[in-house]
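dumping this here so i dont lose it again. seq + smiles for magnesium ion
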Amino acid sequence: MAKVEAKKKGLSDERLRDFLREMLLIRRFEEKVEERFKAGELPGFLHVAIGQEAVAVGVCAALEEDDVIASTHRAHGHTLARGTSPNAVMAELYGKLEGCSHGYGGSMHLYDVERGNLGANAVVGGGLPAITGAALAFKFRKEPRVALAFFGDGATNIGTFHESMNLAQLWNVPAVFCLENNWWAESTPNSQHSPITDFTQRAVAYGMHSIKVGGQEVEPVYDAASEAIDHARRGDGPVLLVVDTYRLVGHYVGDPQVYRPKGELQKLRETQDPITKLRGRLGLSDEEWEQLDGEVTREVEESVEFAKNGTDPAPEDALKNVYA
Amino acid sequence: MAKVEAKKKGLSDERLRDFLREMLLIRRFEEKVEERFKAGELPGFLHVAIGQEAVAVGVCAALEEDDVIASTHRAHGHTLARGTSPNAVMAELYGKLEGCSHGYGGSMHLYDVERGNLGANAVVGGGLPAITGAALAFKFRKEPRVALAFFGDGATNIGTFHESMNLAQLWNVPAVFCLENNWWAESTPNSQHSPITDFTQRAVAYGMHSIKVGGQEVEPVYDAASEAIDHARRGDGPVLLVVDTYRLVGHYVGDPQVYRPKGELQKLRETQDPITKLRGRLGLSDEEWEQLDGEVTREVEESVEFAKNGTDPAPEDALKNVYA
Amino acid sequence: MPELTYREAVRDTLATAMRQDSDVFLMGEDIAEMGGSMGVTHGLVDEFGPERVRNTPISEIAIVGAGIGAAMQGMRPVVEIMYEDFLTLSTEQIVNQAAKHRYMSGGQLKVPLTIRTQGGAGWSPGAQHAQQLEAWFVHIPGLKVIFPSTPTDVRGMLWSAIYDDNPVIVFEHRLLYPVKEDVPEKLEPILFGEARVVREGEDVTVIATGPMVHRSLEAAEEAGRNGVSVEVIDPRSLQPLDEETLVTSVKKTNRCVVTHEAVTRMGFGAEVASVIQYQAFDWLDAPIERVGAKFAPLAFAPVMEQFLIPDSEDVLEGIYRTVGRKRNGD
Amino acid sequence: MPELTYREAVRDTLATAMRQDSDVFLMGEDIAEMGGSMGVTHGLVDEFGPERVRNTPISEIAIVGAGIGAAMQGMRPVVEIMYEDFLTLSTEQIVNQAAKHRYMSGGQLKVPLTIRTQGGAGWSPGAQHAQQLEAWFVHIPGLKVIFPSTPTDVRGMLWSAIYDDNPVIVFEHRLLYPVKEDVPEKLEPILFGEARVVREGEDVTVIATGPMVHRSLEAAEEAGRNGVSVEVIDPRSLQPLDEETLVTSVKKTNRCVVTHEAVTRMGFGAEVASVIQYQAFDWLDAPIERVGAKFAPLAFAPVMEQFLIPDSEDVLEGIYRTVGRKRNGD
Ligand SMILES: Cc1ncc(C[n+]2csc(CCOP(=O)(O)OP(=O)(O)O)c2C)c(N)n1
Ligand SMILES: Cc1ncc(C[n+]2csc(CCOP(=O)(O)OP(=O)(O)O)c2C)c(N)n1
Ligand SMILES: [Mg+2]
Ligand SMILES: [Mg+2]
């Protein structure tokens, strides 16, 4: 495993401000989703990524335009960070034709193929084999592209993870396996789902290169992701990128979290908020903060308006798109 | 990983002679199977374990009577070593009611529940989850029993292997995962199925204890297996026992082995025959050898007679045993 | 007669079995503190502890397989697969192992394993959280398959599943969990292979499973108001199947509608229709109607989802088609 | 007109596609030097190299999934699953992923993936190496399912599968590989959804798949000698299904036998029988007969195995039952 020091090439403050904006946009978007769900406006069920914004933003920023990703049930952040507009994501959550999956997918199936988003997956580990296959296609075609899968710590317990990692390393394809370790799989803590706490150990089984980084500060995440992605793109093989992070909310919106140790959440929210950290790092004045917050909040509000004004599919549309 | 020295507590020559007898019995049994298959007497298709006799014998000798095993498509050796009579195994290969699975199973589904053989599995990796579950039952019931799964190097690529290992370690059950690494999965060499050559690396992913030993000498196999089994029985957790060995025949009976490098087989047969090695170790005279060989050969011949004189099931028997 | 929801009935059965029998234990994702994603096992970990109410990793094939292994040792594990969609990850162990160990061993082994799972659309869970796959398992000799539709049935049948010496798959349905009913004071086991005549009638037999039992009852009421007398039968256990009760009813009514929430094509209704046309051929006055989901994955947007899955209107239309008249007699 | 075996026809199609199209490649266990466990891909690695004829680890779920990923990038992978029994390990990716990506993305994606597999009893492979599971996949919207029974059909249909923009599962059958036939000089694509009338007849329609097509032809000859004129139809593609050809035939003959090697209960024949009874109700003079495997896993001992799986005798009996007379007119 390579140790990643936050390389002191250093990102410009401007770039970091862009990251902050993106992270805050995701945060406000997720909060709005919680609110609208509780208000009974959103069908289905939802998972938000509050606390994990630096992972989505840091990793997606390190990708090139032609790269592809696969996401998970906790998909809003990845999708926004990959460039899909809040309008398109929110419209999808409202089940509208203007949604990024045209109302067919929903929260756990956000797609944006034009932006290299091959889709969020509601089956844990479900997206990993396809990322391996996409990377294989890039290798076949000698295209300098990388395929990256997001997944959680819980997903490392499923067979698809194992088989995909083994295959990717064996075939030396340009894939990055980005493990967002938030220490929980729903209500099941690390200690009840995995016999290890250092997830880079998973990579040893395949002789795969791994990189571990803390996920609450966006700059090191970006650096580590860049290193992993470059490694894969160079043809040096796939990488397991372990990002240790925190889920600062319930598993799903409305989760009473009876299983969570009292106080854990409060403490984490106070000490491990990636947005607070980045704001501090940038030394933003209250005024600057208010302005930024105002902007993204408006963007999110507008996405709700956009979504509500969107077009409902016709019932019979349900019979379209079954086959190409 | 613990390094296992062939502990010089040393097995008595008598015990080793028993091992040799057992190994030779398996060898002659397998040769007979090849012969009878080629003569068109045996239905279905068959995998023999010539070259791997020391693994079956060394490992099974280290088990207690109340322990249980699960085997693979290459099951004859394990089954004989676990104490099922050649008669019962041969009768099964002939599809007779006297067979150890009463004609319902066949070569890849040899069972002998009375002797703790929970069955051979024709699905690669198929038996591992049940071994984990059997071990869990022992733990529940506080019985000092161990459950052991045999499987091959190829099986380490399948999801059931991963999930079973993870679960076994997480729950600290008395299971031993005995990997018979013969470097091939059918026609696919190690280099085309696994990105590693030291299979103890697989255990690191679960923080599982592992032991590696060469499989062509029965004594170290026995010692390593004893250590692994004791470890599990003591409650110290499951163990991955890697036994590096050689398949001195084709994958299946009749396999032309077009894929195998010229000369490999010949060389291995000359240098890596576990029976030759043990015979040398014991310094058996030609006379002693002839006598032993005569005995086991007769036993095998008799098993063929027994099988041929066995009872064919009635056609309608096929509708029995579907439900308990 | 206590009133229980379907959810409580499942919980009550599990608790009762665990209280009397140390061989019974539960495994599944998030079944402990969280009580499972549907809250079914809520509170059980407090009474029975985390060893017997085991949270598992996300390892659908291994937990079914571990259940098989424990069952072969004589325990009676109840494994929960959170959604039927994830059963697709366990099929190898269910189909090749659980279903066949007894057979392949020539009768040496038993696999008293219960697999509980749930699914069902109607709440926009999307295409990977609502499939109904019971038909698959009916195709596999060695498995038993049940799909109880009421609190009383699930209580009695889950009990029988736990104490069956064969692997049993119990299909529950998301939308049935809150359904309430007075149930017998004492848990009464219900044998498999006995269909339940839910409502008697003379003109048409509706054979319905799971949520469609309730939707069919609504349709039957409405049809009754229009002068069509509908008999509703719930097979409850799909394997073994009580062909006799179904056939007897159709021989009386001469008309049949089969309905389930799963996709119509190759759904369980295909088997039922085949059995009925075969055994009641001379009694049938109209083709057997099948009412199931239309041929598409489950769309997210509620308007599309509703279009795909069958409701009481669809059953009613099936009833009217089979009695040869249009809705409202026009 | 060259003569090809079924095995050679598959190989010829794969080679032809790979020659003309660098997007086509093969993945599967032991498909390179060994040519697959059935020798189907024998020699292809020599012509196309190990990159395009890729041996894989024993990773059934990942290789199907990798096929999905490559297909989403516009390649046309052909994945081989050695035995249908092992498809049970891939079902999650087939059912939740391959079948649904297009739909869940609202039409953004295509998954031009071909999955070839084979199974079939009759040579004592035991209970885990001979199951026929085609019915499962017919239940899943988004998949296409074909089961060609002759060299000509497999050649033309495998071609169409490779060039279909949807996931297609190709069921081959162990005992069909050596079957020989004169095939057209040039590979002619065969569209899905067109059943083939294999033999014309007036009295009974036999709808048969895979090896049962051949066994049904034998039965038809024998029935003919006894004065019963049998039409044999092979649907060839099970999804989409050419209902019209099947129904038209039954409307002509007024009698129908459906046969496949898979277990009868919940087998593909259940769907066919349901469709026929519905659409040809008024034309049917007898209940539709289903002839499939009896309800048990596949036993090893040949005498038990033979008892379980249907042969031409069983089809013949089905034919005689449906025309209302016993064998040999007694
Ligand atoms: C195969 C499968 N099993 C179970 C579930 C139900 N489920 C949804 S999310 C989740 C936990 C996932 O944990 P992790 O991978 O760590 O992701 P996180 O939720 O922490 O982001 C589970 C069990 C599922 N979606 N897929
Ligand atoms: C899940 C599954 N996939 C494929 C096969 C076909 N198959 C039978 S044995 C074998 C190779 C197994 O290799 P390994 O595990 O190393 O055991 P060995 O044959 O070397 O003893 C394969 C691919 C199978 N039986 N099960
Ligand atoms: Mg997590
Ligand atoms: Mg091997």
